[in-house]
Known about the structure:
The strands form 3 sheets. Strands 1, 3, 5, 7, 8, 10, 11, 13, 16 and 19 form a 10-stranded parallel β-sheet that branches. The chain has a 7-stranded parallel β-sheet with strand order 2-4-6-9-12-15-18, with no helix packed on it. A two-stranded parallel sheet has the order 14-17. The chain has strands at residues 7-8, 13-17, 21-29, 36-41, 44-53, 64-68, 72-75, 79-81, 88-91, 95-100, 104-106, 109-112, 117-120, 124-128, 133-136, 141-143, 148-151, 154-157, 162-164. The protein is mainly beta. It contains no helices and 19 strands.
Amino acid sequence: TGKNAYLFTSAEDTINIGGNLVINGGNLALATAGNNVVMKVNREFILKSGGLFDAIPKKISKGNLEFQTGTKMFLKSGTFSMTGKYSSLVIQNEMLTWFQDTATVVLPDVVVMPGCTLRIAGKQLGPVSENKTILISPTAMINCGIASVTGNGTFRLEENGSMATAHTEAIYSDSTAGVV
């Protein structure tokens, strides 16, 4: 896409990627014009550089993106930013492995659907932005390992949802609400 250029969609649409989606130097902005976009990646999402956005950076988000994950999210570097009021990251495969390295991440609402597991393989998930929620549904699980989950947002563990952590601070927020 070139320097400071973006490939974007402005239509109501569902984008189904049957395999992997790799962003390596370009920028993809979805839901930029007051539209709602669903993007489903069936296998791996790999961000090596460049970015994935639900708005063109430095512009107000007008639309919403529902990003349906596959089996792996590998955020090596670049920017993963979803700021739309109703944008979400939906985990609906049996297992999603999340690895976040040096990428700049702005999480939307995160929903781990019933029967699914979010496994954090790196050192962190997030941060969770203010007015955003990580929701672990009934029969779903978040396995933090040694990772931290931080931010000003909300963590919600539904009845019969599970959490595993080996991190000494577990899940915490910058306020007294949401500390486990």
